[in-house]
UniProtKB/TrEMBL annotation:
Signal peptide: none annotated. This is ABC-2 transporter permease. Coiled coil: none annotated. It comes from Bianquea renquensis. The chain crosses the membrane at residues 12-32, 38-56, 81-105, 111-134, 146-166, 178-200. It holds the Pfam family ABC2_membrane_5.
Amino acid sequence: MKGLILKDFYMAMKYCRVYLAITIIFAIASIYGNSTFFLFYPVLMAGIIPVNLISYDEKSKWNVYVGAFPYTHREFVSVKYIVTLIFLGIGIGLIAIVQAIHMFISGDVDWNSYFTILSILPALGLIPPCILLPTVFKFGVEKGRIVYFAVILAVCGTFGALGALSLDINTGQLLSNIGSWLIPAALGLGGLLLVASWNLSTYLYQRREI
């Protein structure tokens, strides 16, 4: 399975560099801005990349050719989720750096809200791929494109609304007040969503005729 992970990593570096560039731009913008939308953008990109990799797999018929290799359907599906977690980790690491810089530049150092945000980002970042991947593994990228765009628009709209709302309220104080229950709830729900989506994708892909 290591070979499949390396294959996806090389493909991401070749075909998804524009996402990296956009993410860096938004990360820099978050240093000097006050909207939390910029914080959510890197994790949103992390969830989109695996779906785009599946699209390239289908265009090149790799999803057919891979049957000639000693990989199971579960391994093929698992790689996409592993890649999702890797890029999500990179995105959260980037957010951790730029948010720390933002706090020191603005002079508003609040470690409670800082760690609360970092703790809930994995759950937020898992929502798009955990919805999209089962759909794509069931119907393929082309047939699942409507769901793909619907989820992306919904997530962008939600993050945009949260960003606009954060300009009118004290986000740091709010997170400090609800962090004691929000963190375990978010991590627990995120873990359940990941396990459910992972197993559902495996089941649907095993039953799909390619």
